[in-house]
Amino acid sequence: MSALLDSGVRRGAEVRCPGCTRFIPTDVACPHCFCGPVPPERYGAARELLKSGVDRFALASRTAALEPSQVEVLAARYARQWGVALRLIEDARRIESRLLQRGFARDMEDSWAAQLPTDEALLAERIAPFSPLPDSLAYLSRKAPDMDLSNMASLAWVHEGTSSEDARSTVRYLLLQDGRVAVEAMLALTRWRNAFPVRLTPEERERIRMLALGVLDVPDIGARAAVAWTRVSREAPPAAVSTALHQGLYGSDLDVRFECALSLRDEVEVAQALDSPDADTVTFVRRMLSAWGSPLLFPRLKREGDERFVQDVLRDLPFPPPEGALEALLTVSVRTVGSLADELLGFAKRQSFHAWGLEDQRRWARWARSVLRDLPAETALRFFGWAATPGDNAEPPEEEETEAMWSFLEETVHAIDRGVEKDRIACFKDFLFVHFLHHAGVDEQRRLNDWARDPHSGEALLEALVMFPSRREQARLPASGVEHAARLLMAVWEGPGQHLLVAPMSSVARQWSAYSGREVLVDAVWQRFQSHPSERGLLLAAFASWRDRLWEKQREAEPDALVRFQMWWRLDPVGLYPHAEQLMDGAPLDVLPARLRALWAAAEEIVSTRPRTASLSVSKGAWALLRAVESDDPRYIQVMEAELAYFESRLPAFEQRVRTTPSPPEESNIHRDFLDDTLNALRMMRERRDRRREHEEREREREIERQVAESRRRDQQRRAEEARVAAEALEAARLIEHGQQQARALSDARRLMTDLQPQVPARPLDREVLFPGSALPTLLHYARMLKALQGGADVMKLFEVVGLTPTAWATQANAWGQMMVGRPELAIRFSELLQAPWA
User: Fold this and answer.
1) pLDDT of 400
2) Are 630 and 648 in contact (CB under 8 A)?
3) Residue 428: which of 374, 504, 377 has the closest Cα?
4) 489: closest CA among 543, 422, 550?
5) Alpha carbon separation from 832 to 301, 823, 838 (Å, rounded)
6) The pLDDT value given to residue 192
7) Is the separation of the CB atoms in 428 and 445 below 8 Å?
8) Could you say which DSSP state residue 36 is in?
9) 14 φ, ψ (degrees, to nearest 5)
10) 663 Cβ partners below 8 Å, 6+ apart?
11) Cα–Cα dist 637/593, whole Å
12) Interatomic CA distance for residues 227 and 216, integer angstroms
């Protein structure tokens, strides 16, 4: 009988059909598969025969024909396999008690009844590694050897609100199936424990709505189905859903009432769950009431709230917070250890301090006065940074708002002051410290002065001060903060103990020398440098990396290089030589002597402590003097020779001190004493002086020779001038004589050409015009010209008188010759005229 019960043959008055495993009445043929009746005690043997290949129509007769021993063997074999399956079915029954519907274990039993018998080795291989199964939904969900058992475990686990993505994925898959398992998946995914974390797709939401509407009338799950429809829908519920929700709200099942109250947003009913012994339920109710902004929650929070209560409320509290929420939160914070600082800070930062109303700002200010100074310094600074950060509104804050912010500032000062060194350093390095510096007044500046002299945290504070102008821009603070940065830096510098600031300030200035916004700080240091001569050495040491900018400002303020040299060389960390170099480079000759004397005084002052630096500086002066000596400017030759004499008088004693004084470690970068350079320059100056003197002597001799030569040259010029004057007189006389001769010749030629006549009787042919318009138009004219030429008169003068040129004369004579050839009488008469005497 035990084997029979273990085989799952009976269910009430019915037994399983060995052919199709359905339940049928006893001792009748199966109406489903037409298998003949088989006694229940032989059910296992019949299943074994069916597996071996016996036809189900002959199964009853074949089973009845078995020997009792055969029946016992076959039934025992089937019972062993059923026992393995029964362990899984028992696990399913335990899990089913955690589900909202029943029948999953029975379906699993029917499934195994249809599968058995099977190969025992395969069954053992499938089940044995997991036997016995632990009573853990997480384990069964992931590793159960049966898929139905794994699905049931996933459903139960999701019902309990698990965050396992694998279990949720399984249930979401089951939602898309049919029947009981899909409805159970719908109910599991919409339980209140899964209200926040599960995010469903639009298809899954539509599937849940369809399933929920289909089972609204099913007892025990109708109200839950209405809850599921509400959870996935944004529109108002239909009448059937609303009716089911109200029925569940007034029902006897507390869990269903709670679910329906959540869906109907019944705050009174939901608030009753605040007294639930289940911590998860209480947390969920707090979150829901907080999300609703329920006025039922905040008085209770104020009265009995603790850290966990505040955390639950803040997770879903709407913003801006409902009335009473801030008062309750701050009240709980005041009486809680640690003041819930992290939680309240995250809550506060959801909007700027400026955006809170004046009444809420007063509440925050009272809270800050109560707890802020006792918080860790970094936390207090973060609260102050929130309170001091300007809002998006460009309007200036009201006076009451400013007073509330000052409450945070004053308490933050106390928190930082009582903090340990590590906390102070962290605050000074925090970007929010820029707001502290921006709002720091006289009292805060006194604290800054003290903190800056701390040997451990002082450097971090100085770094914050140097970076303040740049961070002010990043924080979008008003432009007035630029000048405020300079005032803060000088306020920190002011007072006793300035020597304590030199080393950390030098490190900070060197590290952040190229940071933007530095110029305003450099100006502040320069003004301090000018107004406090006694602090100049400390200022140059502390701000050594800014030395070049300060030097530029000094050059702009004082054009005289000698004055700058005397003011800086003792104080400047770079030492004497750079100033000596600037003093000597390009020094005009008129001021060089005064600069050399100042350089000598400085070198002799430090030669006992820095011999090589002093020698190097004197060497620079020696070469500058050499250039001046070599310039040979006559205006300064005597002055430079006097300065050279002074140099020669000071050098021997100075050289002795340089050679006998040991060089300190600070001069390790100067590898020699440079006396050789100075002596070389002195030697070259002496040689130049000697050459100049020799040159001057030679010049004097040359001048004497030049004067003698000049005297001789003047005598020669005088004699040459006298000769020239005499020659010019002779030439003038000659020219006069020549002019007179020319005039006589012209007069003679004119007389000959006008007055000379032949001493023969005249004929008409003599005066006949043969060449009208020419210089010799008649035969008389032509004959007179020849006669004058024969008489030895000046030919050119004759031509000038008659207006001829040699070329024209040749042309005229040729024309007369041709004329005479054509007219013989002319030739005869011409011959007569030439042979006749003329007078």
Assistant:
1) 65
2) no
3) 377
4) 543
5) 172, 15, 12
6) 84
7) no
8) P
9) -105, 160
10) 610, 611, 612, 670, 673
11) 12
12) 10
Q: Strand, coil or helix: what is 769? A: strand
| Alpha-carbon gap, residue 198 to 191, rounded angstroms | 10
Q: Count of residues for the chain?
A: 839
| CB of 320 closer than 8 Å to CB of 358 | no
Contact 799, 813 (CB under 8 A): no
CA distance 439 to 409: 8
- Which residues, in sequence order, are bridge partners of residue 10? 15
Closest CA to 833 of 746, 765, 758: 758
Residues 649, 344: Cα–Cα separation, whole Å: 82
Residue 646: what residue type? Answer: Y
The angle formed by the CA atoms of residues 403, 406 and 409, to the nearest 5 degrees, is 165
Please say whether the beta carbons of 466 and 521 come within 8 A. Answer: yes
| Side chain identity, residue 564 | R
Give the whole-angstrom CA distance, residue 118 versus residue 52: 10
With contact defined as beta carbons under 8 Å apart, do 396 and 359 qualify?
no
The verdict on pTM exceeding 0.85 is no
Q: How many CB atoms lie within 10 A of CB 807?
A: 8
Helix pair 358-371, 399-418: axis angle to 10 deg: 20
Specify whether the CB–CB gap between 324 and 330 falls below 8 A. no
Inter-axis angle of helices 779-790 and 824-835, to 10 degrees?
40
For the purposes of burial, counting CB atoms within 10 Å of the CB of 606, is it exposed (0-12), middle (13-18) or buried (19 or more)? middle
For residues 355 and 244, what is the distance between their CA atoms, to the nearest angstrom? 44
**Residue 5 confidence (pLDDT):** 43
The secondary structure of residue 102, as a DSSP letter, is -
Helix axes 68-96, 147-159, angle to 10 degrees: 20
Is residue 38 within 8 Å of 20, Cβ to Cβ? Answer: no
| Collapsed DSSP state (helix, strand, coil) of residue 199 | coil
- On the CB side of 778, how many CA atoms lie within 13 Å of its CA? 13
Fill in the amino acid letter for 591: V
Per DSSP, 604 falls in state H
Handedness of CA 143, 144, 150, 153 (dihedral sign): negative
How many CB atoms lie under 10 A from the CB of residue 517? 18
- Quick one: pLDDT at residue 316? 86
With tokens 């063997």, the residue in question is 73
Closest CA to 666 of 613, 744, 707: 613
DSSP letter string over 128-173? GGGPSPPS-HHHHHHH-SSHHHHHHHHHHHHHTT---HHHHHHHHH
* Contacts of 107 by beta carbon, 8 Å cutoff, 6+ apart: 148, 180
User: 661: helix, coil or strand?
Assistant: coil
The four Cα atoms 51, 55, 58, 60 give a dihedral, to 10 degrees, of: 30
Cβ neighbours, 10 Å, residue 447:
15
Burial class (CB in 10 A: 0-12, 13-18, 19+), 221: buried
Q: Which residues of the chain have pLDDT under 50?
A: 1-5, 394
All residues at 6 or more sequence positions from 306 whose CB lies less than 8 Å from its CB, including other chains: 332, 336
Residue 652: per-residue pLDDT: 92
Cα radius of gyration (the chain): 66
- Beta partners for residue 665, in sequence order: none
pLDDT value for 162: 84
Neighbours of 470 (CB within 10 A): 16
In the numeric block, the tokens 């100056």 are attached to: 685
Instruction: Give the angle 234-237-240 at the CA atoms, nearest 5°.
Output: 155
Nearest CA among 546, 575, 542 for reference residue 666: 575
Strand (E) or helix (H) holding 25: strand 23-25
For 16-79, the DSSP string reads E-TTT--EEETTS--TTT-PPP--GGGHHHHHHHHHHT--TTSHHHHHHTS-HHHHHHHHHHHH
Task: For residue 457, give both structure tokens.
Answer: 């945290």
In sequence order, the β-bridge partners of residue 132 are none
15, containing H or E segment: strand 14-16
The answer to whether 561 and 583 have CB atoms below 8 angstroms apart is yes
Q: Which residues contact 416 (CB under 8 A, 6 or more apart)?
A: 377, 380, 381, 423, 424, 427, 447, 451
